[in-house]
UniProtKB/TrEMBL annotation, chain A:
GO terms for cellular component: plasma membrane. Keywords: Cell membrane, Lipoprotein, Membrane, Palmitate, Phosphate transport, Signal, Transport. The keyword Transport applies. One of its GO terms (molecular function) is phosphate ion binding. GO terms for biological process: phosphate ion transport. This is Phosphate-binding protein. It holds the Pfam family PBP_like_2. Involved in the system for phosphate transport across the cytoplasmic membrane. The lineage of its organism: Bacteria, Bacillati, Bacillota, Bacilli, Lactobacillales. InterPro entries: PBP_domain (IPR024370), Phos-bd (IPR011862), Phosphate_ABC_transporter (IPR050811).
Automatic annotation (TrEMBL), chain B:
The keyword GTP-binding does not apply. It holds the Pfam family BPD_transp_1. Keywords: Cell membrane, Membrane, Phosphate transport, Transmembrane, Transmembrane helix, Transport. Its main location: membrane. GO terms for biological process: phosphate ion transport. SUPFAM superfamilies: MetI-like. It is found in: Cell membrane. It comes from the Bacteria. This is Phosphate transport system permease protein.
Length: 294, 308
């Protein structure tokens, strides 16, 4: 008797689910739903903006996933997703034909070296940074810190943060093989607890457990990024195919709109595009923005 | 009347129909699983072998090279895809953790089956089962916040390395090896024990000279299973081993395993590029190794099957 009762309950549940699913079917219709995949650094912004957008445009749905910049770029190139989020220019990623994709820059992220608080280091010159990451300097004493062995912690190979750091802070030098972690949160946790550790994270990850380091006496602040006095920053890109559908175009426009740029972008620790006084091309040419606010 | 009966007999009965449906269902389930397994093997193999056939990486260099840096080409124009550091790392943590876990697991199993079966069943069984159920990220996090700092203060260095990985894996494979050892000890026939005791053997002599000897194939299977689990574990190891693609110089120097390099790297590479193919080659090595572990288990099982 009990079994029959259970079976009945199951059937009722199935019917209810079926009806609910049927009524909600429009939400997931092909052109009403798009998927953005890629960079975990950009993910929080796209997620928050996607929720906002779905709130205002009923029936449209933005599906956001991580996976890494490489995944994002290759997926959008294959047409598997509508938007590929990336920390690096498509031109810089191996195996990507950048000519087939359209670049939409949506924010800027500053990247700063961080060290363990007990290293006694607050400032490093570019030369010292390069010496540390290429293994020529192995003790903090050699660059004015305490007598403590240097422990380098890298992001994974191919990470956008690492690429940016090596290009702009190490002047293109490759870091020697060292520990690798695949997320900024993990890097911060390890640097905060390991004596002698040094690594690099986006500005928004810096908190009181770690010490951010000035480079050549320039402090890692948003203001210095905006004027390019602090050169270690990168654009956050949302790549699409050339013939993107309407919802994709509208959503990217929404992310680039001054509403999102002035609220979400800043709240989440990014630097908005219109704050920047300079632009930088993929080759690294820096130009002042005409009529910038200074 | 006769005709009706004949008709009824010639027609398929309800039971026969059910039998046939059951057969179809179980057969298609089997076919689906077999198909999935083969699809996975073929997919990983085709991706993993592309490194050698499409990108023309020397297979020998891949296995014995010590530099892992797929984005860079070395002096002779070959990409740096030496997997030896990862292969070494995987094997060393696996062997060490199995070596560490085996005495504890067999000791626990003996206690649970021979010495105090009732208490064993009431306390130890649930505890080992609980250990199985803890997600690996929890083990990894405990390793990161407890094991790594302890190793750092005792041995110096950063604390990340093979030793930390060994400790975490030890706890993770312990329940697997224990519960399989218990099963192995339970299959030793009761009359072995009775005969040993009748000959005047003490309990320890019975355990040591009879039961453990008789259960050896089963115990070996348990250990190999534990090793297979350790070899394939990714997340927890990745959190404590340091992920440096370097040959381990000591047990406390940062190193890496096949799985840790795979999980950190796969999201940052593009399908079809050399960097990506090289990672698939690592996955292929992993897959082949787990197949070998399975083969070993089967071999032990066949050779050591108990003759009654």
């Amino acid at each position: 008797m009990k079994k029959r009762w259970l079976a009945g309950l199951l059937v009722v549940i199935l019917i209810v689910l079926g009806v609910v699913g049927y009524q909600n079917r429009q939400v997931t219709k092909a052109d009403m739903s798009i998927t953005a995949v890629g960079s975990t650094a950009l993910q929080p912004l796209v997620e928050a903006a996607g929720e906002d957008y779905s709130g205002t445009q009923l029936g449209s749905f933005i599906n956001v996933q991580g996976g890494g910049s490489g995944t994002g770029l290759s997926q959008v190139q294959e047409g598997a997703v509508e938007i590929g989020n990336s920390d690096v220019y498509a031109e810089e990623q191996k195996g990507i034909n950048a000519a087939k994709l359209v670049d939409h820059k949506v924010a800027v992220v500053g990247i700063t070296p961080i060290v363990n608080k007990e290293n006694g280091i607050k400032n490093l010159t570019t030369k010292q940074l390069i010496a540390i990451f290429t293994g020529k300097v192995t003790n903090w004493r050699q660059v004015g810190g305490h007598n403590q062995k240097i422990v380098i912690i890298n992001r994974a190979q191919g990470s956008g943060t690492r690429a940016t750091f090596e290009k702009w802070a190490l002047n293109g030098h490759q870091s020697e093989p060292a520990q690798e972690q695949d997320s900024s949160g993990m890097v911060r946790q390890i640097v905060g607890t390991t004596p002698g550790a040094i690594s690099y994270v986006g500005f928004s990850y810096v908190n009181k457990t770690v010490q951010a380091v000035n480079i050549n006496n320039v402090a890692p602040t948003d203001k210095n990024v905006e004027t390019n006095k602090w050169p270690v920053w990168s654009y956050e890109h949302m790549y699409t195919q050339k013939n993107a559908n309407q919802l994709t175009r509208r959503f990217i426009k929404y992310v680039q709109s001054s509403k999102i740029q002035h609220t979400l972008v800043r709240q989440l620790g990014y630097i908005s595009m219109d704050q920047m006084d300079v632009t930088r091309t993929v080759q690294g040419h820096v130009r002042k923005v005409e009529g910038s606010h200074e | 009347m006769n005709k009706q009966l004949a008709e009824q007999l010639r027609k398929r009965s309800k039971a026969a129909w059910l039998e046939r449906i059951g057969k179809i269902v179980s057969f298609s389930a089997l076919a689906l699983i077999t198909l999935t397994v083969f699809a996975i093997i073929i997919f990983v193999a085709s991706k993993g072998l592309a490194t050698f056939f499409d990108n023309h990486v020397n297979f020998w260099n891949f296995l014995t090279g010590k530099n892992w840096n797929p984005t860079i080409t070395d002096k002779s124009g070959q990409p740096e895809v030496g997997a030896l550091p990862m292969i070494t790392g995987s094997f060393v943590v696996t062997l060490l953790s199995a070596l560490l876990a085996t005495p504890f697991a067999i000791g626990t199993a003996i206690f649970m089956t021979e010495i105090s079966p009732r208490r064993g069943a009431r306390i130890l069984q649930p505890v080992t089962e609980l250990l199985v159920g803890i997600p690996s990220v929890v083990y990894g996090f405990i390793g990161l916040t407890v094991v790594v700092p302890v190793i750092r203060t005792i041995f110096g260095g950063s604390g990340f390395g093979i030793l930390a990985g060994t400790f975490v894996l030890f706890v993770m494979i312990l329940p697997t090896v224990t519960s399989m050892s218990v099963d192995a000890l339970k299959t030793v026939p009761r009359y072995y024990r009775e005969a040993a005791l009748a000959l005047g053997a003490t309990r320890w002599q019975t355990i040591y000279k009879v039961i453990l000897r008789a259960a050896t194939p089963g115990l070996l299977t348990a250990i190999v299973f534990g090793m297979a689990r350790a070899f394939g574990e990714a997340l927890a190891v990745q959190m404590v081993i340091g992920n440096a693609a370097l040959m381990p110089s000591s047990l406390v120097s940062p190193s890496s395993t096949l799985t840790s390099v795979l999980t950190t790297g796969i999201g940052n590479t593009v399908m079809g590029s050399l960097d990506n193919n090289a990672l698939w080659s690592l996955a292929l090595v992993l897959l082949v190794m787990s197949l070998i572990f399975n083969l070993i288990v089967r071999l032990i099982g066949r050779k050591g099957a108990m003759h009654k």
